[in-house]
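Morning - FE2/S2 (inorganic) cluster inputs below, output right after.
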Amino acid sequence: MSNPPHSPHYADQAISCTVSVLENLQIARNTYRLRFESPQMSRRFLPGQFLMLRLAGLQDPLLGRPLALYDTVCKDDGTPRGIDVVYLVMGKMTSLLAEASPGDKLSVWGPLGNGFYPQPVNHLIMVAGGVGYTPFPAVAREHLGSRQYGQPARTTPGASRVSMCYGARSAEFLAGIENFSEIGVELHLATDNGSRGHHGLVTDVLEQVLEQSDSDSRRILCCGPEPMMKRVAEIAEQQQIDCDVSLETPMACGIGICFSCVARVREEADGWDYKRTCVDGPVFDARQIRW
Amino acid sequence: MTPERAKEAVANMCNETGMDLSTQLGRLRLRNPILVASGTFGYAREMKGLVDLNRLGAIVPKTITQQPRLGNTPRRTVETPAGMLNSIGLDNDGIDAFILNHLPCLKQFEAATIVSIAGRTEAEFISMAQKLDQAEGVSALELNISCPNVTGGVDFGTDPEACRRVVQGVVRSCGVPVLAKLTPNVTDIAAIAQAAAAGGADAISVINTLLGMAVNWRGRRPILGNVMGGLSGPAIKPVALRCVYQVARAVDVPVVGIGGISTIDDVMEFLVAGASAIQLGTANFSDPTVSTRILDQLPAALAEAGVSSAMEIVGTLENKPPQPAVPDCCH
Ligand SMILES: Cc1cc2nc3c(=O)[nH]c(=O)nc-3n(C[C@H](O)[C@H](O)[C@H](O)COP(=O)(O)OP(=O)(O)OC[C@H]3O[C@@H](n4cnc5c(N)ncnc54)[C@H](O)[C@@H]3O)c2cc1C
Ligand SMILES: Cc1cc2nc3c(=O)[nH]c(=O)nc-3n(C[C@H](O)[C@H](O)[C@H](O)COP(=O)(O)O)c2cc1C
Ligand code: FES
């Protein structure tokens, strides 16, 4: 039942390049979808992997920022064209990025990290808090068989049912909801202020979904703020459901050379060690994490 | 001639003249002066997919210690204006794991391997040096007597006599060239450099990071788990350049310039100020392929300076008053 061990993922497949912004659209409050051109990168990306992105030529902001793959973009004839990322305006870099226009130059390197490892499962349940929802459209498409990723395109053991529990501060921060419905995902929403969906925590919604799911082949994938992921991991543990979490530790390089992005990962005999989430993750079996 | 054409012409000339990029750090000869700094390039294997590691002058892997160290509590880095603070705290698996797991991989690359070590005591430095002396694939040692993120280690970098003793102890106990890496967090870096030179160091690396801090005022909290951390990146370049200049004037041994280097112009400034080689640090984070790109640009920059080898430009700063800025078109 347990996950195959995630092997370290060095940036062997990564490409580092300067790319042009194709489009930069607001899709929810303070939330933008940025599209850039890079057929090469598009060909290689797997759901749950991330890239590092910075504004080309600037020394301030200096470092790249990690952003998850939102989806790969293809031309009409199906050939790879570029990458979509979705970002929430947080601080220095993302504020500037929100002003980027088509043609502006970005420095990017990726794909990075391990991504979500596909497993045969009846009912796949994705749980997202805030902008942590970004990896999931691609994960859902892959599991429902509507898109393939990687080079050579990997064939995924599908899921017959995919649910998404998605929580945000308020309705206006919920992004890409129509997308999920189009893909065929059962959507369960929660907001802190009750402006849409359940009034309260997304973990409440998860518990309801689990109650209504009688499949004995279930799997939870989770990404969001740490307290939320910790709670989801507890629920999964109690109900003995496999659970993967995608950690969002602050990063400086994204490629394993700085040792800033560490998380406490369990080792044999009750011990733990700091592991670099950029090359040993960002996706971990929830049981591995010492929260 | 357009600037592009001029550049092209210079580049071609370099290929034809075969610019000599090699440099000498005491007993250590390097194929070129472009190195990557400890703690900013992992153990190099992480970079295999992005950088042709055979081309670098040398690789300095992350500092190792006698015993494994967990490192400091996150958060470990934060960006600051044109720079960053780090408090990694020498997170490493210890010397034995390094020799077993990382050295064999580093050995495969044509770049020299300068192993960075940090001991808590002189005896620990010496025993690590002896162990590495026996191992295969160690081109030189860099003594990290300057890490701001651990207590104990830093005394060797601030007390000239302690510095001389530890350098001498290591030099006498092993057969490989020894570099001493100094901290800028001292009143008189030239005095420490003289002590390292007196101890027999083959070269002196300057600088490690500057001690700094970042605060989240809303939360009334320090941002780094360790409260304080080391500042690096473009923000520290002027300080690093000043240190290289002071050290190069104070000692006869070669200097390795480190601190805020991210462009070919930065490299040339350090060479002119007295560095025989340079290390790229934080620049590897913001631009993973910076090292080989700068290497590509080096021959043309040296040609522009009118020299035919890298060593010819080292320490050529003239003590003349600065020239008034005259636009190119007026010449
Ligand atoms: C693997 C991974 C994937 C990610 N994917 C996405 C994504 O798809 N979309 C998205 O919007 N964001 C994503 N993030 C988070 C994103 O990287 C940060 O929001 C971004 O770095 C903020 O940059 P900034 O310059 O705007 O903010 P800064 O000015 O750097 O920071 C603003 C504030 O946020 C804090 N902060 C910054 N980064 C983090 C972090 N990682 N964790 C906790 N606090 C932080 C800072 O301390 C500061 O208080 C991801 C992070 C990781 C590690
Ligand atoms: C994240 C990080 C980790 C570092 N770790 C080490 C280390 O283990 N040993 C060491 O000698 N220097 C270490 N340094 C210092 C660098 O090697 C270099 O001296 C310093 O960062 C200045 O150069 P830069 O401005 O080009 O980064 C580290 C620097 C950073 C940013
Ligand atoms: S972000 Fe640098 S090691 Fe992970």
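Note: Residues A 258; B 37-40, 62-63, 77, 86, 88, 90, 116, 144, 147, 181, 208-209, 232-233, 236, 258-261, 280-283 surround flavin mononucleotide (ligand 2) (CB under 6 Å).

O.
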